[in-house]
Amino acid sequence: MLIFAVVLVMSICFRLSYWQWQRALDKQSQLMMLSEQPENKQLLINTNAELLQGAKTVLVGEFRSGYWWLLDNKIVNGQIGYDLIALFDADGVNDPLIVNLGFVAAGKDRAQLPNIELPVGPIEIDAQFKIGEWSGFTLAKYPNQSIHHRNVLQYLEPSFFSREINAAVSPLLVIANQPVMADVTPHYQAVVMSPDKHRAYALQWLLIGLSAGIIAFFAIRQKSKELIK
């Protein structure tokens, strides 16, 4: 029974180690692909979305006029305000992208929104990607339930933007790394597990598995000696 339990534990640990090692290889490969071919935006569609978390690229395209929103309840450097969200048509990407351009300070009167004028014409955005659940924790029942304004959002949701434009949007949420507009300050920091960290976890699981086997070996050996005596 003990031997079976030890073999089971070692097997699980080795499988986890192999899985982390494979994730490191996959992520390294995808990140190299993006860095080597930043002009090929179609990679954004074909790449495993999970592996794009924190990946950076330069997007070229245009903002869609009139399509912007303010994500409420943001605090940056002690100031209360919003994150400016805009719709961006990127060259080489079929579906429009939702872009978080950064922090906009709120005025004293919450009923009065900041004056927003999106850039007109082709523009470059130094960007990175946030993958997974867009909304985070929220008590809001739907995105645009602000008392004062329809385009003030409580959380982000791809289906909401699809309904707004009556078309599909990309599942990739884009975060601007550099300022695109005056008085709009990028502040997002992606939580990224690098390939090296995956390798470290792979080594950790491998060592745990080996340790379990070694400890079990000496325990069984000691027990056998006691029985012989």
Automatic annotation (TrEMBL):
Instruction: Tell me the compartments it is located in.
Output: Cell membrane
Q: How does it sit in the membrane?
A: Multi-pass membrane protein
Identify the Pfam families for this entry. Answer: SURF1 (PF02104)
PROSITE patterns cross-referenced by the UniProt entry:
SURF1 (PS50895)
Q: Which UniProt keywords apply?
A: Cell membrane, Membrane, Transmembrane, Transmembrane helix
**Source lineage:** Bacteria, Pseudomonadati, Pseudomonadota, Gammaproteobacteria, Alteromonadales
Tell me which family the UniProt entry assigns to this protein.
Answer: Belongs to the SURF1 family.
GO cellular-component terms in the record?
Answer: plasma membrane
**Organism's domain of life?**
Bacteria
Q: What is this protein called?
A: SURF1-like protein
Protein's UniProt keywords contain Hydrolase = no
> Could you confirm whether the keyword Transmembrane appears in this record?
yes
Q: InterPro entries from the xrefs?
A: Surf1/Shy1
Principal localization reads membrane
